[in-house]
Amino acid sequence: NIALILNRKPILGVVYIPATDDFYWALKNIGSYKNNKVIKNNSSREKIIGAKSNFHSTKEEELFFKKFKISKILRFGSAIKLCKLAEGEIDVYPRLNGTMEWDTAAPQIIASEAGCKLIDIETKKELRYNKKTLKNNSFIASREDLNFIK
């Protein structure tokens, strides 16, 4: 993952996944791409598909899925979850434990340019970068049309 941050927001992001040889990138106001083909989360499915980490899932995330009646949950590692959100393979990814800025900046712009959002649970705004601490607050990433934070 690599990202360029301007005014505390990612404006360029690159994610390469060696295991599948997939290359994702996005540029602010230009769009999101996988292997140089445009991607967009155009899903409007009512039966929401969630994602969780291969290694860092929490009880709080299980409660989130139960609360919102999300029964289909896929597992992916690292930044792949946010790239799968950008592609429309999943609809929501709650991350209710620690991540660092370098984990999320690149895939955030990829998801954002594809019609998705990453909302900080504490501030109720998009994740911001270059903070005093590099640790992110918990967040929920989802399609733009879904709202899990009141």
Summarize the structure.
The protein is α+β, with helices and mostly antiparallel strands and 150 residues long. Helix content is 20%, strand content 37%. The strands form four sheets. The protein has a five-stranded antiparallel β-sheet with strand order 1-2-3-4-5, with helices on one face. The chain has a three-stranded antiparallel β-sheet with strand order 8-12-10. A two-stranded parallel sheet has the order 6-7.
Rg calculated over all Cα atoms: 14 Å
The chain-level mean pLDDT equals 95
Largest sheet: 5 strands, antiparallel
The oligomerization state is single chain
Query: What's the total helix number?
Result: 3
Number of strands: 12
What share of residues are in beta strands?
35-45%
Largest sheet, spatial ordering of strands: 1-2-3-4-5
Structural class: alpha+beta
* Poorly predicted parts: none
From the spread of the alpha carbons, the general shape counts as: globular
Please write the string of helix (H) and strand (E) elements: EEEEEEHEHEEHEEE
Q: Span between N and C termini?
A: 30 Å
Task: State the share of residues found in helices, binned by percent.
Answer: 10-25%
Descriptive terms for the model:
single chain, three-stranded antiparallel β-sheet, 37% strand, five-stranded antiparallel β-sheet, 150 residues, alpha+beta, 20% helix, 12 strands
